TrEMBL record, chain A:
The chain crosses the membrane at residues 24-44, 64-89, 96-118, 138-154, 166-186, 206-227. GO terms for biological process: cytochrome complex assembly. One of its GO terms (molecular function) is heme binding. Belongs to the CcmC/CycZ/HelC family. It comes from Kangiella spongicola. This is Heme exporter protein C. Its main location: membrane. Keywords: Cell inner membrane, Cell membrane, Cytochrome c-type biogenesis, Membrane, Transmembrane, Transmembrane helix, Transport. It is a multi-pass membrane protein. InterPro entries: Cyt_c_assembly (IPR002541), Cyt_c_biogenesis_CcmC (IPR003557), Cyt_c_biogenesis_CcsA/CcmC (IPR045062). GO terms for cellular component: plasma membrane. Required for the export of heme to the periplasm for the biogenesis of c-type cytochromes. Residues 30-189 form the Cytochrome c assembly protein domain.
Automatic annotation (TrEMBL), chain B:
GO terms for cellular component: plasma membrane. This is Heme exporter protein B. Keywords: Cell inner membrane, Cell membrane, Cytochrome c-type biogenesis, Membrane, Transmembrane, Transmembrane helix, Transport. The chain crosses the membrane at residues 17-36, 48-69, 106-123, 130-156, 162-184, 196-214. It is a multi-pass membrane protein. InterPro entries: Cyt_c_biogenesis_CcmB, Cyt_c_CcmB_bac. One of its GO terms (molecular function) is heme transmembrane transporter activity. GO terms for biological process: cytochrome c biosynthetic process; cytochrome complex assembly. It is found in: Cell inner membrane. It comes from Kangiella spongicola. Pfam families: CcmB (PF03379). Belongs to the CcmB/CycW/HelB family.
Length: 255, 223
């Protein structure tokens, strides 16, 4: 336990975090590429077509749509948790994490809406429906964009960090509304069926879970890359950043 | 403490009563646009009435937010208030004053707008105006509470005005949905107490969290 706490505190150091994430990044990217390659092969070629509802090939959209939608929500929850860590333990790196998740999360939300729209046209016959789940996903996109807009509106970075952290925490109230909206209003969108027993045949499950894992790792990789840029941006003046930057420049000139 | 703060808010607001009247005027004018834009026929207006009145109320609540926070922030009195008392109680007094001076007048004005939007057309015995007032009575405090959080967050930001709307409107949506559907349910002669209960639940959640969040945000903006 004490060791875990020490590690947690070490992560608060920009230099340590930068070095550690630099070590992790190649592994994460490697695993991402393998999982996505396998997952895409299964989902685009090797999985059966949907027969019951006559969806044919369009069912393949699911393998992108479901992970994107899951990540759009998980991303926001992760943002709120990092925001709480930042506000409670006054950890500056937590704010850098919050700021790094936002664009990736917004992208996933957009992807979920876009793929949903493309999937909705052949199956429901409409690009858009004001269904509860879709509407709350749209609101989630607005929350992400509001967060980014708020963060960009301050000249003082520490104020920007704290104010947008509060916004992230307040916005997370929207997540349960998204989650339970299916049960509350229950309109067009089908219920949550991925973990329900028997709802999803095994031949659909394998590609879906591979894609889920791959997309989670892709999300992590994107966030970490952004986080590293954010760390450099926030510590421009510190010595190790100067050394890191000049060392890199020397390597380039030597080549 | 809070009553002293509240008295101060009310006094400041009274000296700027035109500023308070403008959002109310906006409320009436926006609603009166719909008959021109859509159709003056009573059944049509009646169908639109819950949504139109609720959206107009929501927008005028957003518009009136500025004056309870902006000038106090700019002339430094907010800083003095925060030195004097806890941030949460400053937030509570501002939220309560905002509701008393804009939310409550909206509730009182809503029968007039119900009249303009023909809300009782075709009903002899059922009075939908009461339902409209009740839904606004339960919904507008939640709008004040959420708006206070957004406003406090953006006080120190470089751009404002529209930024608050972008942050807060997504959070307003659940209130809008259940507020308008309360009135719609009543117009369709359905039971509407479920919707009212959910509005009440939103209010309870907001009362617990919003003053605290708003207080923290005020502190960040000033500090």
């Amino acid at each position: 336990m004490a060791k875990a706490w020490r590690w947690f505190h070490q992560l608060g150091s920009p230099k340590y975090l930068f070095q550690k994430t630099g070590q992790w990044l190649p592994w994460i990217w490697g695993a991402t590429l393998i999982l996505l390659a396998v997952g895409l092969y299964y989902s685009l070629w090797a999985s059966p077509l949907e027969a019951r509802q006559g969806q044919g090939h369009t069912v393949r959209i699911m393998y992108i749509h479901v992970p994107a939608a899951a990540l759009s929500m998980v991303g926001y929850i992760a943002m709120a948790i990092a925001a709480i860590v930042g506000l409670v333990w006054k950890m500056k790196m937590a704010f850098a994490v919050v700021r790094s998740i936002a664009p990736a999360g917004a992208a996933m939300t957009f992807l979920a809406l876009f793929t949903g729209s493309v999937w909705g046209k052949p199956t429901w016959g409409t690009w858009w429906e004001w269904d509860a789940r879709m509407t709350s996903e749209l609101l989630l996109l607005f929350l992400y964009l509001g967060f980014i807009a708020l963060h960009a509106s301050f000249s003082d970075r520490s104020k920007a960090d704290k104010a947008s952290a509060i916004l992230a925490i307040v916005g997370v109230i929207n997540i349960p509304i998204i989650y339970f909206s299916v049960k509350w209003w229950n309109t067009l969108h089908q219920g949550y069926s991925v973990t329900q027993k028997g709802a999803l045949a095994p031949e659909f499950q394998v590609p879906l879970f591979t894609m889920l894992a791959g997309m989670y790792l892709l999300f992590a990789a994107l966030v970490i890359m952004r986080l590293r840029a954010e760390i450099i941006l926030r510590n421009q003046k510190s010595r190790w950043v100067m050394e890191w930057a000049t060392a890199d420049a020397k390597k380039v000139t030597h080549d | 403490m809070i009553s002293t703060l509240l008295k101060r808010e009310l006094k400041v607001a009274r000296r700027n009563w035109i500023g308070l009247a403008i959002p109310l005027l906006f409320f009436i004018i926006v609603v009166s646009l719909f008959p021109f834009a859509v159709s003056p026929e009573a059944p049509m207006l009646q169908k639109l009435a819950p949504g139109v009145i609720w959206v107009a109320a929501l927008l005028s609540m957003l518009l009136s937010l500025e004056q309870f926070y902006r000038s106090d922030f700019q002339d430094g009195s907010l800083e003095q208030l925060l030195l004097m008392s806890s941030p949460t109680s400053v937030a509570i007094s501002k939220i309560f004053a905002h509701w008393l001076l804009t939310g409550l007048p909206l509730v009182i004005l809503s029968p007039l707008l119900g009249l303009l939007m023909q809300i009782n057309y075709g009903f002899e015995h059922i009075n939908h105006t009461w339902v409209l007032m009740l839904s606004l009575m339960l919904g507008t405090p939640t709008l004040c509470l959420l708006g206070a959080v957004g406003m406090s967050l953006t006080l120190a930001a470089n751009r404002n005005g529209l930024l608050v709307s972008i942050l807060i409107i997504p959070l307003y949506v659940p209130v809008l949905i259940f507020g308008a559907s309360t009135v719609t349910a009543s117009l369709e002669s359905l039971r509407y107490n479920g919707e009212l209960a959910i509005l009440g639940a939103f209010l309870m959640i907001a009362i617990v969290f919003a003053p605290f969040a708003s207080g923290r945000a005020l502190k960040i903006s000033v500090g």
